[in-house]
Amino acid sequence: MITGVIRSKIDKIWTDIWAGGITNPLTVIEQLTYLMFIRSLDEKELENEEFANMSGTMGKRIFPESAAGQSMRWSKFKNRDSREIFDIMEKRVFPAVKGIKYGRLPDFDEKGEMLEIPDEPGREGEENTAFARYMEDASFLIPTAQVLQKIITGLEDLYTHDIAGLDMQGDLYEYMLGKLSTAGQNGQFRTPKHIREMMVELLAPTPEDTICDLSLIHI
């Protein structure tokens, strides 16, 4: 169940994203979903490593063992300088998550170019999970390093101190989805920037024109 404290922390993260310029609630949820998934990958890897320490065997890793591969782990970058985090997220984490295959993230060469995971004979159809297919068209839209750091700090605090060990992922999404109806009732849906610019180009308004926004009229 979502308590008042958890609601307040989610609202704080939401406000930080909103203040950073992402005002479409669907986009807010989308970007948070990506970051939550990225964190969950590292959690799974930590579980794999703990099992390996106990059993003496390590299965296939999610993250490459290279320096570049390990830098993509939430636990490795979460406390770094905000500009470093932004750079890692934009240039490595997001491209790698979009290229995930067989449950593994691709590595990067010395030039920063991503190395695609080769197909494995006999494993046709296993390449991508449902989320990996969804991530293929994902866009990293967090506008600044400072906003990204605030979100990561907020999520880490939430997961560490409030929902650690609890199966609350569904509750979190339900609460966030509930914000969509509230935003709609308050007239807070925002037209995406590229749509606004297209509308202006098509209409080509001049200072002499009068423009009426019908969306503001309540019947």
Description:
The protein is an all-alpha fold. It is built from 9 helices and 2 strands. It has helices spanning 4-19, 25-55, 67-71, 74-77, 82-98, 130-135, 145-161, 169-185, 193-203, and strands at residues 107-108, 114-115. A two-stranded antiparallel ribbon has the order 1-2. The longest helix has 31 residues, at 25-55.
Summary tags:
219 residues; 57% helix; mainly alpha
Outline of this structure?
The chain has 219 residues and is mostly helical. 57% of the residues lie in helices and 2% in strands. Helix 1 runs antiparallel to helix 7 and helix 5 packs across helix 7.
Q: Which helices and strands, and how do they pair?
A:
Layout (H helix, E strand, L loop, with lengths): L3 H16 L5 H31 L11 H5 L2 H4 L4 H17 L8 E2 L5 E2 L14 H6 L9 H17 L7 H17 L7 H11 L16
Antiparallel strand pairs: 1-2
Helix pairs in contact: 1-7, 5-7
